[in-house]
Amino acid sequence: RRTRYPGLVSDPGHERAAAQFTGFGSIISIELDDATSADAFVASLALWLPATSLGGVESTIERRRRHAAEPLTVPEGLVRLSVGIENVEDLWADLAQGLDSLD
């Protein structure tokens, strides 16, 4: 549905990030249709490790809004990705097959 990245001018957090950061980093979020799609997508990936804490050298992924205490403003289908040091083509291929598996 939508890509979220503070480096994109269209991102709701762009203005704040541009004012506070010297760069935009390697954390990207995508919004899928719903929680079921987000869970299925995360489960279908081979290289991206499910993790709550992002920012290591390995690529990690987390579906947000899994807990009742999270704000309702967080979309149920929101998935955060932290890009690590793996081969970028392998990561793209893994994401592509994950998205294709949702069809």
Helicity range: 25-40%
Mean pLDDT: 90
Tell me the strand order in the biggest sheet: 1-2-5-4-3
CATH architectural type: Alpha-Beta Complex
- Whole-number total of structural domains: 1
Helices and strands in order:
Layout: E1 2-4, H1 14-20, E2 27-31, H2 35-44, E3 49-50, E4 60-63, E5 78-82, H3 88-100
Parallel strand pairs: 3-4
Antiparallel strand pairs: 1-2, 2-5, 4-5
Explain this structure to me?
The chain is an alpha+beta fold and 103 residues long. The protein has one domain: Aspartate Aminotransferase, domain 1 (Alpha-Beta Complex). It is built from 3 helices and 5 strands. The protein has helices at 14-20, 35-44, 88-100; strands at 2-4, 27-31, 49-50, 60-63, 78-82. Strands 1-2-5-4-3 form a 5-stranded mixed β-sheet, with helices on one face. The mean pLDDT is 90.
Characteristic key phrases:
single chain, 103 residues, alpha+beta, Aspartate Aminotransferase, domain 1, five-stranded mixed sheet, 3 helices, 5 strands, 29% helix, 18% strand, globular
Produce a short descriptive summary.
With 103 residues, the chain is an alpha+beta fold.
